[in-house]
Design goal:
Blueprint lengths: L2 H6 L6 E4 L7 H11 L3 E5 L1 E3 L2 E3 L7 H15 E2 L5 E7 L2 E8 L8 E2 L3 H5 L1 E4 L2 E4 L2 H11 L20 H11 L5 H6 L3 E4 L2 E4 L1 H6 L3 H6 L5 E6 L7 E7 L3 H14 L3 E6 L2 E6 L3 H14 L9 E5 L3 E7 L23 H7 L9 H9 L5 E8 L2 E8 L5 H15 L2 H12 L3 H11 L4 H7 L7 H12 L3 E3 L12 E3 L1 H11 L1
Parallel strand pairs: 1-2, 13-17
Antiparallel strand pairs: 2-7, 3-4, 5-8, 6-7, 9-10, 11-12, 13-14, 15-16, 17-18, 18-20, 19-20, 21-22
Helix pairs in contact: 10-11, 11-13, 14-19, 15-19, 16-19
């Protein structure tokens, strides 16, 4: 990337600008934070506000280079070897310092020691690492992951994994026995006894999961409006992690709309959000979250103007969401991720981000954003042209009034004269979602009549009602809900 393009970029996880060489420990803290994370670049001779290259004295460049090298060598441990060079911007000179991702973490300030001198890069800031972050860096050095560590609370044979065994057999056709559990690193032998790894506890329904990983859950919420003041619906998903993604995804589907449009002679349907991308983001949140961070859960928040997924743990160092179309893979949980792949929950390595990028191309009205907040990673799907509920319904009402097909226009005229089962179904579903049998009962019918079934089909074809579990029409818990289009139709009937 050309230097002029770099100068336009904001400071962040892998980039920092300095007007002069920082005094005291400012420079070593940044160097340490970069080395402990994904690496990064520091440009000296750049004013940040307003952003401009002010340059450094040309006759002092070699001296400043030596000074920078000495500061890094004297203050940082283990030894960090920077790549220092000079960069020219028009008639000005900058010093460029490249810090590579270190292979001997944790790196820390010599004078402060490991406990008080280890820094991580979080966004554009250097943050003092706590004990859990230092432990994670130690695991990186030993090339192990938290989910592969043994839990000695009870032998693996005493762990309740019956539901996980059944689910694994259903999805793979294979049995989970001692040999396969060992091969998947879900159990390991210690002094002649097999103990579970943290991964197996997370997959289990054992009491240990609730005691050790009480925070390993997904909190879902549908808020009214664009703030968090009022809930419409919420759900806490506390099952084993193999089942969490689908439950969270189904919660989202229940609270977003599926519109109908005509293409040629056929009526087509389309979700208001890219649901495949949403599913992938939710799956990634569960597969790649940092399970060593106690007290932090995954959050799926649905607002009128966006959907937001927040996962504990920063983005793995080698993953860059700005280059989504490039196949990228960096599994934080090296035991969990392969099991999820076997279960069909995630696809081939590196395909996930590309899948998201590809589907977003078909949704130009949705803006995709990601950011790191504290020790969490957050993804947002934002409606670019969001309008308030009142504005949207007024607009949709006008559109429906202008674009109603002949059949639906006739229905509207008939319903205005005398309300029939057509409208009564919509009114009942506006109050709450109902199954086919519950609808029959609400309408005073003794059985599910053919007329009721035909009316339900017609309402679905017109996009006035929809399934609560759209991708599984025959699901035993299936119900119907009124769509925004259906609500507007009721309003038109009552005018």
């Amino acid at each position: 990337m050309h230097i002029n393009e770099i100068l336009k970029k904001p400071e962040g996880r892998r980039l920092e600008f300095k007007e002069t060489i920082p005094t005291q420990l400012g420079l070593p803290k940044t160097v340490i934070a970069f080395a402990n994370d994904a690496g990064g670049e520091i440009y000296i001779g750049v004013r940040d506000n307003p952003r401009e290259a002010v340059g450094l004295p040309e006759d002092k460049l070699v001296e400043l280079e030596e000074q920078i090298g000495d500061i890094i060598y004297d203050c940082c441990y283990p030894v960090i070897l920077p790549d220092i060079s000079f960069v020219r911007v028009e008639d000005k000179y900058l010093i460029k310092i490249i810090i590579y991702r270190g292979n001997m973490p944790p790196y820390f300030l010599k004078e402060k020691g490991k406990t008080n001198g280890t820094y991580n890069r979080i966004g554009s800031a250097n943050r003092l690492a706590d004990a859990s972050m230092i432990e994670e860096l130690e695991r990186k050095k030993r090339n192990i992951s938290f989910d592969s560590e043994l839990a000695f609370d009870k032998p693996a044979a005493e762990l309740d994994i019956n539901e996980f065994k059944s689910f694994f057999h259903e999805k793979t056709g294979e049995e989970l026995n001692t040999q396969s559990l060992k091969k998947l690193e879900l159990i390991k032998e210690y002094q002649g006894i097999f103990y579970p790894t943290n991964a197996l506890i997370l997959f289990s329904d054992d009491e240990l999961r609730n005691s050790h990983f009480y925070f390993a859950k997904v909190e879902c919420a549908r808020f009214k409006g664009i703030g968090t003041e009022e809930f419409i619906d919420q759900k806490s998903i506390r099952c084993n992690i193999a089942l969490q993604a689908e439950e969270a995804y189904n919660f989202v589907l229940r609270h977003i709309d599926k519109g109908a449009f005509v293409e040629g002679v056929y009526t087509q349907s389309r979700w208001e959000y890219p649901v495949k991308a949403l599913r992938e983001v939710i799956r990634n949140a569960i597969v790649h979250r940092d399970y060593s961070l106690a007290g932090k859960d995954i959050k799926v928040a649905i607002y009128d103007d966006m959907i937001e997924v927040t996962s504990p743990g920063l983005l793995p160092p080698s993953i860059d969401y700005d280059a989504m179309e490039d196949r990228q893979s960096d599994a934080r949980n090296r035991v969990i991720a392969p099991v999820f792949k076997l279960l069909g929950i995630i696809d081939q390595w590196g395909n996930g981000l590309k899948l998201i990028a590809d589907e977003l191309k078909a949704y130009p009205e949705i803006e995709f954003r990601w950011k790191e907040i504290g020790l969490s990673f957050q993804v947002q799907f934002i409606k670019r042209n969001y309008k308030s509920e009142k504005e949207s319904r007024q607009e949709l009402g006008q559109e429906l009034g202008q674009e109603l097909g002949q059949e639906l226009r006739q229905e509207l005229g008939q319903e205005r004269k005398e309300k029939t089962i057509f409208t009564f179904i919509l009114i009942h579903l506006q109050q709450k979602s109902l199954s086919r049998s519950e609808l029959a009962k609400a309408l005073g019918l003794k059985t599910i009549s053919g007329h009721l079934n035909r009316t339900i089909t017609k309402l679905q074809e017109h996009g006035l009602i929809d399934f609560t579990i759209p991708d599984k029409p025959n699901h035993p818990d299936q119900k119907f809900r009124v769509t925004e289009r259906g609500i507007v139709f009721i309003q038109l009937v009552e005018k």
